[in-house]
Each structure stands twice: as structure tokens, then as C-alpha cells.
Write a structure and sequence with these properties.
Blueprint lengths: L12 H6 L7 H14 L4 E7 L5 E6 L6 H8 L14 H4 L24 E7 L5 E7 L17 E4 L2 H16 L11 H22 L11 H9 L6 H4 L3 H4 L5 E7 L3 H4 L12 H14 L19 E8 L2 E6 L7 H6 L2 E7 L5 E7 L2 E8 L16 E7 L11 H9 L1 H4 L1 E6 L2 E3 L12 H7 L11 E7 L20 H22 L4 H61 L6 H19 L14 H32 L5 H61 L4 H34 L4 H11 L1 H42 L5 H24 L11 E4 H18 L2 E5 L1 H5 L1 E4 L1 H22 L4 E8 L2 E6 L28 H11 L3 E4 L12 E5 L3 E2 L1
Parallel strand pairs: 1-7, 13-15, 17-19
Antiparallel strand pairs: 1-2, 2-6, 3-4, 3-6, 4-5, 7-8, 9-10, 9-12, 10-11, 12-15, 13-14, 16-18, 18-23, 19-20, 20-22, 21-22
Helix pairs in contact: 2-11, 17-19, 17-22, 18-19, 18-20, 20-21, 23-24, 25-27, 27-28
Length: about 1000
């Protein structure tokens, strides 16, 4: 038999399979194209989403670009490693950065099909003309078209202006793949015409399966033809490219039309919380993926500052630019290090973890976690070394060691930035870290035993860092949905899972002794906080009680006072008491008034009345006047009785005894009735609570017992859940019933609970007053917060515009004008940054703050003022060399405030020479002057809110805010009193640096 030779034939549909259908979603497609930009040596890549008659998505970079030969031989060649240039080749010589290539399959460029059906690709390579091509990916959806029959049109042009005139010819070339001219009788043209006829017929049949007729039907062929007649690639669209703006000379731009709903949703200007679920999820998913595209959890020492790569997403509504993903991080290594739990270390090639573990803020160094077994691997199955940096926090605020504000801040960002991700050479590997990916089985274990397996997907931040060189067998799947399921990936996952389980058992989980001790301390602290909250609640109740009594009693108290005044007037102007009977009647009257007066008492009075104070003062004035008159009546009655009584008149005293006894009996009866009613009500409520506690355990486990009987759950799992529910119910019952027992026990032991609470309130009164003042101060921060977002947006837009403008060809006059505008913008930005500590939630970008920078900043603010006042500002060499890595927006205002205080008091002293010195010694920055200094009696109040000794212009806020801002970064400030420590004779402030010194 003769040998038959055959070969594969490829349909155009293959491109659709490899591109659009392989991509899980838009963020994954964008990340693939961004990786291509990274491999093309770009240091800037951006996604622009522009509204219009048809929305356009643009992915633009400033990489080394492509020539026409590169486009044809590499970009259009599917499956080739276009990112590997020949040794000594032109592109290799032009590389600015030494990077590990991210692309593996040679099909990443096809991801653009998932972002829009029509693509305009433009690229510029050094010493080569622009090349442009247009592709409609819908052509590749036709299952009848052969791949070799499709011709992709491309042109070379010398300028982008020339490109606009070439677009019609590109469309004409594209349409030959859809509607070949009738004159073209080639086999390829005949096959294309037949293929589109068959595909249109197929689409009509499919449409009729769901519709009565072909009304509203539009074939793919018709859609492609109609699209070619629209002008969508306008100057506004093309100018999003760095090359078009003139800010760089090389790069590649991909402009896509027919974008999916996920990108259209980004043009909705409402926030995520104000839109429907579908739009909100799309916005959230894109932000979550792309805002964390590059590794945010690298320290300053680990960063390669000579290899920058910035990723930006901008939505265009008209000419308004909204930065959805910017260069600034919302959650980075500085935030991770603030978390109460942290695992940070290195895993070697044998699977041993060595590093640091932080538990409730306490660090344990040189922690070693052994692998579960010894790994014997071949070259093609080894997993390689990698780094681990994972942070976690307690899911319940009351169990956390972090301050409440920090816990809430971290918890609020968990949806967008939480999860355990994987990064390869600094770029994210999808889809790890998303809700729908549980590669390390975190949630799977947690559902079995949440107490033992501490880690939770959304209560965890961090990443596993791998490299292409160190982990060559950890490769991506073709569909970019994760790592290939080979042996290396399985071992890699097993090692990470072991680290998570071991750290949970030894440090974070329910079995950990370290956790038990820490939780005991936290519980005591939370109990103290609860006591403070209870005191606050009691104070509020007491104020409300006093307020209500004043409102209810004041009218009758006023009438009562008028009645007393009339009686007093009658006694003054009437006839004298002439016998014992009249004296007894007056005594009985004063007794009745005395008893009536007790009903108007507001006791006990809370230590702070707040807004009720003025009402209370008016009421108290009426009460005191009434008491004074009753006191006079009593004295008059007692004097009259004494005057008209003989030693044998014992019936008068006995009568007084009987009268008082009747008053006491009446009062006791009234309180007894009220007490019995309260006891009866509380006893009923207590019995209901007891009944509820008894039934809660059965109710919580009833479904589990049914599942156990049906065999839906194993006895082992059932016992674990039963044990867990038992522990929950024990805690819940104790929290519900013990307060009753404690209160009743206190009553039995004659402990005055209300008296204790009121005394405690009085003790904490000064702190309550400060809290009230702080609420007022917070309004300023809220005001800055409200306008902050708008100002920051405008500031970024102005900065970006000026930066781009400088990169264009400007005349000398235009350069001077730009310099003038830049100076004004920088000054305005400085003033805004000075206000940034007042914001309640702004980002505080960290940088190297040096002594010389601080001096420049102070001179910009006060240089002219100090010179005009003949004040000398000097620094020491040690201060100039001093450097700390921290937020300038926190540190600069502190120095501005201290210099301002020195300037004021030097002017008050008005004696030359006037000196201010900035010094640094023994880890402490010194700000000193030779003014009058601070009185020793004022030291205790120096850093408290609203304390000031200035005769004018002082608010008593500056030093308080300075201390608070410094504390946020771990620094502290003190006033130096020892003459040996002072740098100058006047005021000397020492700032103890607790941050990262350089």
C-alpha cells in the first residue's frame, strides 16, 4: 500500500478559541496585555476607557515597539516566542531593563479579542516608521473560513497625521476578508464568499429557533460591514498614547471598539455602593485585579528602583478624566506591617520555612517550619525556593489587639485588597487571591474548624513570591486560569498549606498557648472599654432623667415657690402667733412643705450635665429659693412652739413623731410598690431569658441531628460541630445571665450600684469633656475630607498635564510660562499637603524625609518672615544628614508648628540675638530657641488640647496635633527641661524617632 501523507488544516475559528474563548474575564485579558508591555521593556502602561458614540478601550505603552517585520513575523505568528530576541539582536541591545519574560505561550496578544471586536494596532520602533493594522475579531468566529484565506491589512506611515488618511485603505483591506470583490475569482475569494453565505444561513436558522421571523436580525457579516463605515478612532482616542502626546518616541497602542459590559460599567460615574449589583461587581473585580497587578508587598530594600513599571486605569467621561487605578497604593507593605498577625520568611528548595512570625503584635524571630515530608524531585518536577509574606487579623473586633480605627480601616479594604495572591517576578499570577479561587484550600479547611484553622480568605492579606528562574516548573495554563496541575505545582501548594496549618496551630489558632495568653489580656482591655461605654450610657441616661424631671416639675415648682412666697408674706405682715395651737398648725404646714419639696429633688446629679446645664441652673435656683423659705417657716414654727410650750407638753413631740412616721410609711409604701413592680417585670424577663438559653442549644443543632440521622454528615464531623456549638452557647449563656447574678449579688451585699456608677462618672468627667472638644475639632477634618477628593483629582490632572506638556517641543517663552505655572502649582500642592494630616482617611505616601528637606520646607513657609523679624534659623551637620522614611505630610506640619511657636515667643521677648536651632543627637531631633521657654507649671498641660498661653492667635491645637501625628508613625515628642540636654537657653522640644532611619 502506498504511504499517504496528510497535514492539519486550520480553521480561522482556532484564533477565536485561543484568544477570546480562553480568557476568563476582562481583568485577566488586560493583565495579559500589560504583561506583554512589561516584556516589551515599557515602564508605563495604561488602560483608557473612553465614552462616545461607541466606547473605546485603549491599552497604550512606551515599550520598544514593533517594525513591520516584527508585526508580520512575530505578532501575527501564533505560538512563537516573540519575546525572545536573537542574541545580540537590535531589540536586545536597546533594552533599558533586565527583566524576566512573563509570556510563555505566545498567544497573550490574542487576549485583545476579549476587550473588543474591532482592533486598531499602532506601533513605533526606534529608527522605523509607524506600523498600523486593523483586525475585526468577529471574522474568526466564522467556523467555515480557513485561516490561510484571511489577510490582515497593515501599513507603514511616517506620522500619525498620515495614519488618519490611511485608515480607509486599512478598512478596505479588512473588508476583502468579508466581501471579496466580484472581480476576484481566486480560490481563496470563492471560499470566503461561500463561507460567509453558509455562516449567514446558519445564523438565520439559529435566530429563527427563538423568534417568529427575521425582524431585527443582523448577521455578523452585516455588523462587520456597518462597523467599517463608522469613524471611531478619533484624535481624542489616539492622543491617549504616550507617543501621540509626544512624551516618548516608541511604544505600542491597541485601540478596541465593541468593548464588553465589564468595561462599559467603568464609565458609570457613581461609586460602587451606589450602582446595581452587576455593575458594582464589575467595577469591583476590575479594581481588585488591576490595582494589585504589581506586587505591593515589597519593602524599600527589595524594590528595584532602577526598573520602574507603573500601571494606570483612566475612565474618560467627555474630557473629565477619572483615575480608577493610579500609581499610589491604597494598601501596601506599610499597611501589612501594621497588622496584628504576620508571617514573613523564605522557603528553600527543600520546603523549609525560615522567618519571622508576629502574633497580636508580638514578634517571634528565627521561626522554622519543617515540610510534612522529604521531597525527592526531578529537574522537571522541582518547585524551587520562594518567599512568603502574609498578614492576618481577628475577624471579630473585640478579639483584636489593634486599635478600633485600624481594625476598621483594614477590614474595610479587605474586599478590594484582601486574599492570598501569587506574584511571579513582581507581576500577579491570575486568579489567585480572588473570592472564586481557593488554591490553598483556606476556606475549605475553615469550614471544617474555624477555630483551629485560623486563616480566612478575606481576613488575610499577602502573597507568595515566585520567580521564573527559580521556579521554572510553575507554569501558567493556556487559559491563564492558574498554574498548570503538574507535580511541581502540587508540591508548591502542599508546602504553603503546611505553613498555613502550622502557623495557625502554633501561633494563631485555638490550640495556641500564645493566643490564649494574648486573648486574656485583650479580654481585660475590652472589659475596661465596655465599662467606659457603660459609664457613658449611664451618663446619658442620667442626663435624660434630669432633663425630663426639669421639664415635668418646673411649672409646678414655680407655682409651689409662689405659694411659699405668699405664706412667707402673710407671716411677715400678719398677726403674731399667740398660742400653742397656732404654732402646731404652722409646724404641720412646714412639715408638709418639706415633704413636698423632696419630690422636686433631682438627686443624684451626674458630674457633667452637658446641654442640660443651663436648664438645671434655672431649676436649681427655684429649688434653693423654695428650700430657703421652707427653712424659715420651720425655724419660725419651732420658735413659736418653744415659746408656747411647757415641760409637761409631751404631746407636741409625740405628735411630731407620728407625723414624721406617717410621711416615712407613705414613702416606703410608694417605693415598695414601684420596686415590687420592677422585680415582677424583671423576674418574668429573667425567666424568659433562662428559657431561651435552655432552648438555644437544641435549636442550633436540630438540623445537624437530622443530617446525622440521614447520614448526610459523618459522626466525626457532627461531634466537632456539636463541640463548637457547646462552646458558643457556654459563652452566650454566661454573657446573658451573669450580669443579672452580679447585680443581684451586689444588692444583697448592700453595694450601691448607682452610687458607684455616678462616682465613676465624676472621676472620668475631665476625659469626657476632652472627648466633647475633640468632636468639635473633628469637624475640621471632616470638612477637609469632603473637599479632599476633588482637590486631589484636580491636582493629579494638573500635574499630569504639566508633565506631558514639558515633554513636548516648547519655545523658550513657553518654557518660562510653564515654569511659572509649575511653580504656582507646586506651591498650591505644598499648601494642600500641609493640610493632609487633618484628613480623617487620606493616604499618607511615605518618602525619605531628610533634615535638608525639612529645612527647605520651613524656609519656603517662614523664610521671609524670619528674616524680616531678624530671627536666625540654623541647623547642625547631624541634622542635615538625618533621614527617616515616613510621610512628609505628617512630619512637615510638626516642624512648621514648632518653628511658628518659637517665632511668636522670640517676638514677645524681643531681645537680640533671636535664634532657632535644628539639631539631631542620640536618635532625637531637637527644635530649640533662645526665647523665654515654657513655665514648669505648664508642662503637664503643654500637649493637651486647647491649652495655650498666647495672648493672640493661639488655639491650643498645634502641639496636641503634632503629638498625635507623630504617634501615628511611632514617634514621640517631649519638652526638654534639663539644662544639660538643652541646645539653646529657651524652649527645647525633642522628637524621638521611632520609624525607619536611614
Amino acid at each position: 500500500m502506498p504511504l499517504i501523507i496528510s497535514s492539519f488544516k486550520t480553521r480561522a475559528r482556532t484564533i477565536d478559541h485561543l484568544g477570546r474563548e480562553q480568557i476568563a474575564d476582562c481583568p485577566t485579558a488586560i493583565s495579559e496585555l500589560w504583561k506583554n508591555s512589561y516584556d516589551a521593556d515599557a515602564d508605563e502602561v495604561a488602560l483608557h476607557i473612553l465614552d462616545g458614540e461607541q466606547s473605546v478601550a485603549a491599552i497604550v505603552d512606551n515599550g520598544f515597539g514593533m517594525s513591520l517585520a516584527d508585526f508580520e513575523e512575530k505578532w501575527l505568528t501564533v505560538g512563537t516566542e516573540s519575546k525572545i530576541e536573537s542574541e545580540g539582536g537590535e531589540a536586545e541591545n536597546k533594552r533599558k531593563y533586565v527583566r524576566q519574560k512573563q509570556g510563555q505561550k505566545g498567544i497573550g496578544r490574542l487576549s485583545s479579542a476579549a476587550l473588543g471586536h474591532l482592533l486598531l494596532l499602532i506601533s513605533k520602533k526606534e529608527h522605523h516608521p509607524y506600523i498600523a493594522s486593523i483586525i475585526d475579531w468577529r471574522i474568526f468566529e466564522n467556523p467555515y473560513v480557513m485561516l490561510h484565506d484571511i489577510a490582515i491589512p497593515a501599513v507603514e506611515v511616517d506620522s500619525l497625521e498620515e495614519l488618519h488618511s490611511e485608515l480607509p485603505s486599512l478598512y478596505e483591506g479588512l473588508m476583502r476578508n468579508v466581501t471579496p470583490s466580484e472581480e476576484n475569482k481566486s480560490e481563496g475569494a470563492l471560499r470566503l464568499r461561500a463561507a460567509w453565505e453558509m455562516f449567514t444561513g446558519f445564523e438565520e436558522k439559529e435566530y429563527l429557533k427563538q423568534n417568529q421571523n427575521l425582524d431585527g436580525f443582523q448577521s455578523t457579516l452585516k455588523q462587520i460591514v456597518n462597523q467599517s463605515q463608522l469613524k471611531v478612532f478619533t484624535e481624542r482616542v489616539v492622543n491617549t498614547w504616550q507617543v501621540a502626546k509626544g512624551t516618548c518616541e516608541t511604544g505600542t497602542a491597541m485601540f478596541m471598539v465593541g468593548i464588553p459590559d465589564e468595561l462599559e460599567d467603568q464609565l458609570v460615574m457613581d461609586s460602587i455602593t451606589e450602582v446595581n449589583d452587576t455593575t458594582g461587581r464589575a467595577k469591583l473585580k476590575l479594581l481588585e485585579t488591576l490595582s494589585n497587578f504589581t506586587d505591593p508587598f515589597v519593602t524599600e530594600n527589595e524594590k528595584n528602583k532602577e526598573d520602574p513599571f507603573s500601571c494606570v486605569v483612566v475612565a474618560w467621561n467627555g474630557q473629565l478624566q477619572r483615575v480608577l487605578v493610579g500609581e499610589e497604593r491604597e494598601f501596601d507593605i506599610s499597611d501589612l506591617e501594621k497588622m496584628e498577625h504576620l508571617v514573613d520568611g523564605h522557603v528553600d528548595e527543600e520546603g523549609y520555612f525560615k522567618g519571622t512570625v508576629k502574633v497580636f503584635g508580638q514578634e517571634f524571630d528565627d521561626v522554622v517550619i519543617k515540610p510534612v515530608r522529604q521531597y525527592k524531585t526531578r529537574v522537571d518536577s522541582r518547585f524551587g525556593a520562594f518567599d512568603v509574606r502574609i498578614g492576618g487579623y481577628e475577624g471579630r473586633k473585640q478579639n483584636s489587639s489593634m486599635p478600633e480605627a485600624l481594625w476598621e480601616q483594614i477590614d474595610s479594604k479587605s474586599t478590594l485588597h484582601g486574599g492570598l495572591r501569587i506574584y511571579r517576578d513582581g507581576l500577579r499570577v491570575m486568579p489567585y487571591g480572588r473570592d472564586d479561587s481557593d488554591f490553598f484550600e483556606i476556606e475549605s479547611r475553615r469550614t471544617r474548624n474555624a477555630g483551629q484553622f485560623f486563616w480566612s480568605a478575606r481576613k488575610t492579606y499577602g502573597r507568595i513570591s515566585i520567580s521564573r528562574l527559580g521556579n521554572p516548573n510553575l507554569k501558567d495554563k493556556a487559559g491563564r486560569e492558574g498554574l498548570m496541575d503538574n507535580r511541581a505545582a502540587m508540591l508548591f501548594r502542599e508546602i504553603v498549606i503546611n505553613i498555613l496549618i502550622e502557623t495557625a496551630e502554633r501561633f494563631f489558632g485555638r490550640k495556641s498557648k500564645i493566643r490564649a495568653e494574648a486573648q486574656a489580656d485583650i479580654a481585660a482591655e475590652r472589659a475596661e472599654e465596655k465599662a467606659k461605654a457603660d459609664r457613658k450610657k449611664l451618663l446619658k441616661n442620667e442626663r435624660n432623667r434630669v432633663k425630663k424631671l426639669i421639664k415635668d416639675n418646673q411649672p409646678s415648682l414655680s407655682a409651689f415657690l409662689m405659694e411659699l412666697e405668699e405664706i412667707q408674706a402673710d407671716l411677715i405682715h400678719g398677726e403674731d402667733i399667740t398660742n400653742l395651737q397656732q404654732a402646731k398648725e404652722l409646724k404641720n404646714l412646714s412639715n408638709r412643705y418639706n415633704e413636698s419639696l423632696k419630690d422636686y429633688s433631682l438627686s443624684p446629679i451626674p458630674p457633667s450635665l452637658g446641654t442640660v446645664k443651663d436648664q438645671y441652673d434655672d431649676y436649681r435656683s427655684l429649688e434653693l429659693q423654695a428650700k430657703e423659705i421652707v427653712k424659715r417657716l420651720t425655724i419660725s414654727a419651732d420658735s413659736a412652739i418653744e415659746k408656747h410650750t411647757t415641760k409637761s407638753d409631751t404631746d407636741v413631740a409625740r405628735s411630731q413623731f407620728n407625723t414624721n412616721r406617717s410621711y416615712i410609711t407613705s414613702k416606703v409604701k410608694k417605693m415598695a410598690t414601684e420596686g415590687r413592680e420592677l422585680l415582677k417585670t424583671e423576674l418574668e424577663r429573667f425567666e424568659q431569658l433562662v428559657d431561651s438559653c435552655n432552648k438555644a442549644y437544641d435549636s442550633a443543632l436540630s438540623e445537624l441531628l437530622k443530617d446525622l440521622d440521614l447520614g448526610a454528615v459523618s459522626p466525626a464531623d457532627a461531634m466537632k460541630k456539636i463541640d463548637l456549638e457547646y462552646q458558643k452557647q457556654e459563652i452566650a449563656n454566661a454573657q446573658a445571665l451573669k450580669p443579672y447574678i452580679s447585680a443581684l449579688s451586689s444588692i444583697r451585699n448592700a453595694i450601691d450600684l448607682e452610687g458607684l456608677a455616678i462616682a465613676s462618672l465624676r472621676e472620668s468627667n475631665k476625659w469626657q469633656q476632652e472627648a466633647t472638644r475633640l468632636n468639635g475639632l473633628a469637624q475640621l477634618g471632616i470638612t477637609v475630607e469632603i473637599i479632599g477628593h476633588e482637590i486631589e483629582g484636580l491636582d493629579l490632572t494638573m500635574a499630569r498635564g504639566l508633565k506631558d506638556l514639558r515633554k513636548t517641543d516648547l519655545t523658550s517663552t513657553q518654557n518660562e510660562l510653564v515654569d511659572s505655572v509649575s511653580f504656582a502649582h507646586e506651591s498650591l500642592s505644598d499648601k494642600w499637603r500641609f493640610l493632609s494630616p487633618l484628613k480623617l482617611s487620606g493616604d499618607h505616601t511615605k518618602a525619605d524625609v531628610t533634615g535638608s528637606k525639612i529645612l527647605d520646607y520651613v524656609n519656603n513657609f517662614y523664610g521671609e518672615v524670619l528674616e524680616r523679624r531678624n530671627i536666625t534659623l540654623s541647623t547642625t551637620d547631624s541634622f542635615n544628614k538625618f533621614s527617616v522614611y515616613d510621610s512628609p505630610a505628617r512630619l512637615y506640619p510638626v516642624f512648621i508648628n514648632l518653628i511658628n511657636n518659637s517665632r511668636y515667643w522670640l517676638n514677645v521677648k524681643d531681645e537680640d540675638p533671636k535664634e532657632i536651632l535644628l539639631d539631631y543627637r542620640d536618635g532625637e531631633v531637637i527644635v530649640a530657641d533662645n526665647g523665654p521657654g515654657v513655665d514648669l507649671v505648664d508642662l503637664e498641660s503643654l500637649f493637651t488640647l486647647f491649652f495655650t498661653k498666647k495672648q493672640r492667635g493661639g488655639r491650643g491645637v498645634g502641639l496636641y496635633l503634632s503629638k498625635s501625628n507623630l504617634a501615628v508613625s511611632g514617634h514621640s515628642i517631649r519638652y526638654i527641661t534639663s539644662p544639660d540636654e538643652k541646645s539653646l537657653s529657651g524652649a527645647n522640644f525633642g522628637i524621638k524617632i521611632g520609624g525607619l532611619l536611614k
